Amino acid sequence: MSEGAAKKERPRSFQAIRGVRDLLPDQTSLWNFVERIAHETFATFGFGEIRLPLFERTDLFARSIGEDTDVVSKEMYTFLDPPAWLEILEKLGTVKDVDRTATTFTIKNHLPNENFIAEVLSLRPEATASACRAYIEHNMQQLPQPVKLYYMGPMFRRERPQKGRYRQFYQIGAEVLGGSDAPAIDAEVIEMVMTFFDRLGLEGVQLHINSIGDKNCRPKYVELLREELQKVKDKLGPDSRRRIDTNPLRVLDSKLESEQETIEKLPRITQHLCDSCRDNYDEVKRQLAIRGINYSQNFRLVRGLDYYMRTTFEITAKGLGSQNAVCGGGRYDGLLELLGGPPTKGIGFAIGEDRLILSLQESGKAPAQQGRDVYIAWMGERAQATAIRAAKDLRKAGFSVELPPVEQKFGKALGQADKLGAKYALILGDNEVSEGLWTLKMLADGSQAKFTEPDLLEHLRKQKALSS
Ligand code: HAM
Q1: What pLDDT digit, counting tens, does each position of 200-234 carry?
Q2: Rounded to 5°, angle at Cα 58 from 54 and 59
Q3: CA–centroid distance, residue 158 to ligand 1 (Å)
Q4: Is the dihedral of CA 411, 415, 417, 418 positive or negative?
Q5: Cβ 183 under 6 angstroms from ligand 1
Q6: Beta bridge partners of 449
Q7: Is the entire prediction scored with pTM above 0.85?
Q8: Ligand 1: which of 31, 69, 71, 126 to mutate, judged by most atoms within 8 Å of the beta carbon?
Q9: How far is the C-alpha of 190 from the C-alpha of 199, rounded, in Å?
Q10: Ligand 1 center to residue 328 CA distance, Å?
């Protein structure tokens, strides 16, 4: 190939990875709005923000979420630190039977001259485990209890992408750690999410609740469920059949059309709760009623993570199709002990922010995108210096200003100002600069007026106050 032909060939471009998206400025204004309302609402309930790492040791997730869950067994992005997959694969051919609970891999005698020791890390698939780890690590049990934390940010699960389901998705979550397990706490946590959704104007919000018992009553129910499932095994699909042994509760979660009739007839956990779990569940419902929160009870709401006990809940909203759970949560007393901490109560939730945004967009709730306030159309060297100063002063006063880097003919500048949705064009030519009178053009109706520099700022301030 000649040099000329080689030059013309453009290198292959890149695309974001499947299930991973860019959020562009016309979308992020709604994201920022939602996050601002979350900060404000959660603060009124006494929650403080915690920023957690994006990756942790894999066994933190395996131990909390459960090794047999889909999230841990299939969906985590796991890597070694130092990242030496390639060298290892080269030496070993393939890596088989990866032990997800291992904290390190020691690969002996395969690398020249040394053993290879690496930590097994994963991108976080959720943040409850990290919040609990942080509570223990920072001795938060010494703070006034309970400790109320919230977080927002990306999570990673290798699921099959579809509408409302991504491999990098965002959660806004909260956890109440320590203190008592009074049912009023469960109800207040739910009240906080509902208040947040209400402030956003989210439509079609439905709260579903359940109690999945505790370590006294759940094992007996699970056994009973397993026995009943064995009897109807033939009517179940391969996934559910497999779960009879591994995790029979998850059969209740199945969305498979052909299994629905069978599942409806299975024994329900709420009829097999021990006395204290039943009393607890009744009190949670009473506390919700006092707060004027409507709910429906759903005996099939078992959730996909192992750490839950007693209260579980999910919230669905309008316009989301099959992935309609916009929030999931529940109580997880015992999880902190499992992670090496002191006996500590815990309850929390996580909202799927992507889904929340989708639902708001579907019901037309997107706030109008903010255009520029002022486009400065300048011509001439002297005018540029004045334009730079004007831009500085206007920005200081809080206006959004577009200052073209090179001189433009006024016609072109006004066209550009229009395209950017600017409200005003500030026209600065030699005349304006020498007279000290600046021309301000209202782009909506084409009217214009001349102002001295201080008057102009005052005028714009007044107009802004009027329109807000
Ligand atoms: P989760 O039910 O696994 O719970 O996730 C909570 C929410 O995150 C879901 O209801 C959904 O809106 C959203 N979500 C989950 N996976 C995806 C995905 N692949 N794409 C888009 N959105 C998704 C938890 O994560 C628990 N940590 C919640 C919790 C906090 N429980 C107690 N404290």
Answers
A1: 999 999 999 999 999 999 999 999 999 999 999 99
A2: 135
A3: 13
A4: positive
A5: no
A6: 440
A7: yes
A8: 126
A9: 14
A10: 6
Rounded Cα gap, residues 389 and 381, in angstroms = 13
Cis peptide before 83 (omega within 30 of 0): no
Question: Where in 237-373 does DSSP place strands (E)?
Answer: 296-297, 309-316, 325-331, 346-352
- List domains and CATH numbers for the chain: 25-54+124-217+273-362 (3.30.930.10), 374-467 (3.40.50.800)
Closest CA to 269 of 319, 216, 212, 224: 212
Q: Does the beta carbon of 348 sit less than 6 angstroms from any atom of ligand 1?
A: yes
Say how far residue 362 (Cα) sits from the centre of its chain: 18
* Structure tokens belonging to residue 381: 């060297």
How many C-beta neighbours within 10 Å does residue 27 have? 15
From the CB of 166, is ligand 1 less than 6 Å away? yes
Residue 449 — very low, low, confident or very high, per pLDDT cuts 50/70/90? very high
Ligand 1 neighbourhood includes 218 CB (under 6 angstroms): no
Main-chain dihedrals φ then ψ at residue 368, nearest 5 degrees: -60, 140
Residue 41 Cβ inside 6 Å of ligand 1? The answer reads: no
Question: Is 313 near ligand 1, meaning CB less than 6 Å away?
Answer: no
Q: Which atom of ligand 1 is nearest to the CA of 129?
A: 27
298-347 residue pLDDT tens:
999 988 888 999 999 999 999 898 888 999 999 999 999 999 999 999 99
